[in-house]
Amino acid sequence: MLLQLAFTVVSATCALGSAINARQMAFRFSPSATFQYNVGNGAIYPSDYVYVSKSPESKGNDNTTLLTVVYPEASRGKKCQFGLFSELIHAEGSKQLDLFTSLKPAPAGGASGWPPGNQRGTHLGRLSIVAEGLAPWVAKYSTYLTEATPCKPPGTVEGFELVGVGERDYVSFYPARFRIYYFS
Known about the structure:
This protein has one helix at residues 2-14, and strands spanning 27-29, 33-38, 44-46, 50-54, 63-70, 79-84, 90-93, 96-102, 120-128, 137-140, 149-150, 157-164, 169-173, 178-183. The protein is mostly beta strands. The protein has one domain (2-183). The strands form 3 sheets. Strands 3-2-5-12-8-9-10 form a 7-stranded antiparallel sheet, with no helix packed on it. A 4-stranded antiparallel sheet has the order 1-14-6-11, with no helix packed on it. A 3-stranded antiparallel sheet has the order 4-13-7, with no helix packed on it. The protein is globular. 36% of the residues are buried. The model is unreliable at 1-15 and 18-23 (pLDDT under 50).
């Protein structure tokens, strides 16, 4: 089992692209907190899973997911790159997600409505959910974390938002599938 896990990590890191070659070993971290954000009423509530939904029937009460990550000490001085491990993800509709930075992470206890809102920042890119392996980028709008970039200092808290792309989208998965890889 441990050998299979090591093989999976090495295989996934090799798939990140030219930034990581077969001789480099990458490690990863996942969100420390996950929140659902209701686009219609501004409510933010803690969640144990990523859930993105969008449809005309929701009458504007679509859901996005806000994710909070904390950069670990082990990432100090390394390069970081985002990866979404597609296995065990349920997706319907466009099977694509837009990834944004957040100006501020979601409040720890959530919020019943406006403010604070989603604090949407930079549009990093669009991912395609595939049957297995890392989700490929359909489009990149920034090099930040879509390519190998210097990791933020350890202890830095950063927020992200995952948003549906099509008119009818449904995507759900455990937060551990959302990863930031760090490597030399």
